[in-house]
Write a structure and sequence with these properties.
With 368 residues, the chain is an alpha/beta fold. 36% of the residues lie in helices and 25% in strands. The protein has two domains: 8-119, Enolase-like, domain 1 (2-Layer Sandwich), CATH 3.30.390.10; 124-354, Alpha-Beta Barrel (TIM Barrel). The chain has helices spanning 58-61, 65-79, 86-93, 100-118, 122-126, 144-156, 170-178, 197-205, 224-233, 247-255, 266-269, 272-284, 298-310, and strands spanning 8-26, 29-43, 45-54, 133-134, 137-139, 161-165, 186-190, 212-216, 238-240, 261-264, 289-291, 314-317, 330-332, 335-337, 340-342, 351-354, 366-367. The chain starts with 7 loop residues before the first strand and ends with a strand.
Length: 368
């Protein structure tokens, strides 16, 4: 990317804890707080650095905040004094298994740094396909009445696409969809592995009178045969989420014709580099991609937004997690207006400042 003479001089990581406005329930459990990490990668002089965020989710990625911090500490000495060669850096990190949230934080920070060094926004470096894209807004597992109230509020804020979390109970989940079926919006469903294959098909067949774009991960991540059964037996598209972490997972699913789409999350796959591999595999197979999120702030959400703007085959977007946080400590970066995502036309991620959420750090704005 034209940064061959620039070298990494320092890598730092710290806790980045973010509280939710209210508990968020999915079929895997209820979440009240995001225990993330914040990574900075410095280049040549201490005034130039890139930033990335990791959001480990134990039930999905198998890692946690403490382990992520430890990984960054351990891998940093192997990366310091290395040139800003993204493939060489990825090769070092990928010699270690798992720890995808920590890898994502480092990978995003390096891409941010490369964009700054080249004075170009990241989405233009990656391809620059579009300038805006529409995101959905997610509603957790609630009563039908609460789902409707949340949906009406989202519509009043300009969102036209909603993703509804379902739990794997056919009748209760059906009532949630019935509660919003008259609102004139696009509806996506996300089961987070909540159904058995047979119950998933039963549920999907009961949705024939509703306009549903797709359902994500209806069965457990390991049940690839079940995923294929639901795809072949139902009448709405089936997207994989937890079944696809790395590019090799995507390749297996498209080879076996198990899904109609793939939801990519930077925290699952380890960053932008692996995400691009998944996008290319899916596009070659004629399968669209979605870009989603865990519980990131606008730091890593902005990286995902740049990716969505860069690649044609990302057809669907679910980048809304910062809207569920009590505080938005980030200035600059992606913006959402009337459901449409844009990013700054400025170098790297385009984030201009961040207020650190950690007692041992100052609370004032830190310029980037």
């Amino acid at each position: 990317m034209g940064t061959e003479t620039r070298k990494i001089t320092k890598i730092t990581a710290e806790k980045y804890d973010l509280s939710l406005i209210e508990p968020f329930r999915i079929s895997l459990g209820t979440i009240t707080k995001a225990n993330n990490i914040l990574v900075r990668v410095f280049c040549n002089d201490s005034s130039t650095f890139g930033m990335g965020e990791g959001s480990p989710t134990y039930k999905i990625t198998g890692d946690n905040q403490a382990g992520s911090l430890s990984f960054v500490k351990d891998v940093a000495p192997l990366l310091v004094d290395r040139k800003l060669d993204i493939q060489a850096i990825d090769e070092i990190m990928n010699s270690f298994v798992n720890m995808t949230a920590a890898k994502a934080a480092i990978n995003i920070a390096i891409y941010d740094l490369i964009g700054k060094e080249l004075s170009k926004p990241l989405f233009k470096l990656l391809g620059g396909y579009r300038k805006e894209i529409e995101t959905d807004l997610t509603i957790g597992i609630l009563t039908p009445k609460e789902v409707r109230e949340k949906a009406i509020d989202a519509i009043s804020k300009g969102f036209r696409i909603l993703k509804i979390k379902v739990e794997g109970d056919v009748e209760r989940d059906l009532k949630r969809i019935e509660a919003i079926s008259d609102l004139g919006i696009k509806i996506r469903l996300d089961a987070n592995q909540g159904f058995t294959p047979k119950d998933a098909v039963k549920f999907i067949r009961k949705l024939s009178s509703f306009e549903i774009e797709f359902i994500e991960q209806p069965v457990p991540f390991w049940d690839i045969d079940g995923l294929k059964y639901v795809k072949e037996s139902g009448n709405i598209p089936v997207f994989a989420d937890e079944s696809v972490h790395l590019a090799r997972d995507a390749l297996k699913l498209v080879q076996e014709k198990c899904v109609d789409g793939i939801n990519i999350k930077l925290m699952k796959c380890g960053g932008l580099s692996e995400a691009i591999k998944i996008i290319n595999i899916a596009e070659a197979a004629g399968i669209p991609c979605m870009i989603g999120c865990m519980l990131e702030s606008r730091i890593s959400l902005t990286a995902a937004a740049h990716l969505a703007l860069a690649f044609k085959n990302i057809k669907y977007v679910d980048l809304d997690s910062y809207l569920f946080l009590k505080d938005d400590p980030v200035s600059g970066g992606m913006e959402v207006k009337n459901g449409k995502i844009t990013v700054p036309d400025s170098p790297g991620l385009g984030i201009t400042g961040i207020r650190c959420i950690k007692s041992s750090y100052e609370k004032e704005e830190k310029n980037i």
